[in-house]
Amino acid sequence: MTPAEVAAAARPRVEGEREQEILEATLDVLADVGYDRLTMDAVASAARASKATLYRRWETKASLVLEAVLAQKGPIGEAPETGSLRGDLIASYCGHGGLTDERSLAVFGSVITALTRDAEFAAGFRELFVGPKVEATRVLFERAEERGEIRDDLDLDIVGPALAAIVMHRQFFLGQPATTESITKVIDQVILPAVLKPSTPKDAS
Fold it and tell me: Which residues contact 73 (CB under 8 A, 6 or more apart)?
């Protein structure tokens, strides 16, 4: 190890409020230029930090961006429980951190290309960002299954991500913004008809 490397290693790593400032700067650069054009130099400039400061905390661009994305998402709380699958889906997918959250969608849009071009980032993003969201949605369907709302033959690995997939396809490919109204329509016209048990007709008597 060179004297310069020894000196750098001896300096404390960035943390606390300063760390958060750098993560916010990373998100700003990400939203501005996208993942492919984001550089450690650009983030350092936006955060008014040295590139060496960044590398003491994050070894690669992928690790920095992934942590920034996870930090803005925040921890995933317990899946909402409203008493019906419809209510749970609306509560989960609309509002802060959901599919109507403009910043969350903007960040996701800026990293789409990285999912096919950067194996390190893609693996971390799928495990730490997508994975918990998929699991939280699965919980909603499992509760509905326990209540007897949905069919017993459903493959939840296919059904669970369907709502997010439809909404994001409309957002990024068709240019139709995700709103509470549009998400509710997808729930009512696509998801629920596909998963709910057929209603039992009442006796004519």
Answer: 97, 104, 129
Work out the burial of residue 96: count CB atoms within 10 Å of its CB; fewer than 13 is exposed, 13-18 middle, 19 or more buried: exposed
Do 56 and 86 share a domain, yes or no? no
Identify the CATH number of the domain in which residue 179 sits: 1.10.357.10
How many CA atoms lie within 13 Å of 182's alpha carbon, on the beta-carbon side? 14
Give me the DSSP letters along 119-131: HHHHHHHIIIIIH
On whether both 84 and 173 belong to a single domain, the answer is yes
Report pTM. Answer: 0.78
pLDDT digits (tens, 9 = 90+) for 138-189: 999 999 999 999 999 999 999 999 999 999 999 989 999 999 999 999 999 9
Secondary structure tally for the chain: helices H, strands E: 14, 0
Is the domain of 85 the same as that of 185?
yes
Mean pLDDT of the chain: 86
The 10 Å Cβ neighbour count of residue 175 is 7
